[in-house]
Amino acid sequence: MVAVCHSHRVHDVDEETLLAAASPVLPAEPEENDPVVLMYTGGTTGLPKGVLIEHRAEALNLYHGAMTISGLRIDTYLMQTPMFHAASMLGILGSPIFGGRVVFIPMFNPNGVLDLIEAHQVTDTLMVPTMIGMCLASDKYSPRRLSSLKRLVYGASPMPEATLNRLQADLPELDLIQGYGMTEACSTVSLLLIHLKKRQLRRSA
């Protein structure tokens, strides 16, 4: 329901009326260098800066990720990051490519995440390590509730070794993928897969 206020009057329009009033138009096929999205990034440098991303860059970024993650197929993606953020592009673009569906949580809370993953049999999602730790610390957590997950991408801050070890112990079949990216580089810059992470930990021991 949409309510538009003009002075003292309120006009309510239901979804069906809005859709019936629309005239679907198929846009012209874009060129590779046409802009597809304007994303804003602030980082630690002050005011946000607009980054104009081209179709080719966005498509290749997703393509490279699919090449890196063997057997990637997204059935159900849980969107936990803001959709204006570069980290969300895998869920926004990747899920439709595979004919998958996207489940949304309006604002992160660990119990809500556990409920949605279990109820919708979510296969893929992205979280920062703090979010993962909060889910594991919830009194409603059990490995069974996350058993549908096939891949968990994490990044934005270092992953505590204790959290990583617990995830591997509780969910040994889960593919853990550490991502690093930046908006100016069209999201993903590098991906560290779990077998490489294990090798890295052995070397540092």
Structure report:
It contains seven helices and ten strands. By secondary structure, the protein is α/β, with parallel strands linked by helices. The chain has a six-stranded mixed sheet, with helices on both faces. It has a two-stranded antiparallel ribbon with strand order 1-2. It has a two-stranded antiparallel sheet with strand order 3-4. Helix 4 packs across helix 5. The chain is globular and about 50 Å long.
- Tell me the major beta sheet: 6 strands, mixed
What amount of the residues lies in strands?
A: 25-35%
Mean pLDDT across the residues is 84
* CATH topology description of the domain at 72-204: Rossmann fold
Which segments are poorly predicted (pLDDT under 50) over 5 or more consecutive residues?
Answer: 1-7
Helix content: 25-40%
Strand arrangement, major sheet: 6-5-7-8-9-10
Give the second-level CATH assignment, the architecture of the domain at 72-204.
3-Layer(aba) Sandwich
Secondary-structure element order, N to C = EEHEEHEHEHEHEHEEH
Structural category = alpha/beta
Broad shape = globular
Span between N and C termini? 58 Å
CATH class of the domain at 72-204: Alpha Beta
Task: Find the count of extended strands (DSSP E, 2+ residues).
Answer: 10
With helices defined by DSSP (H or I, 4 residues minimum), what is the helix count? 7
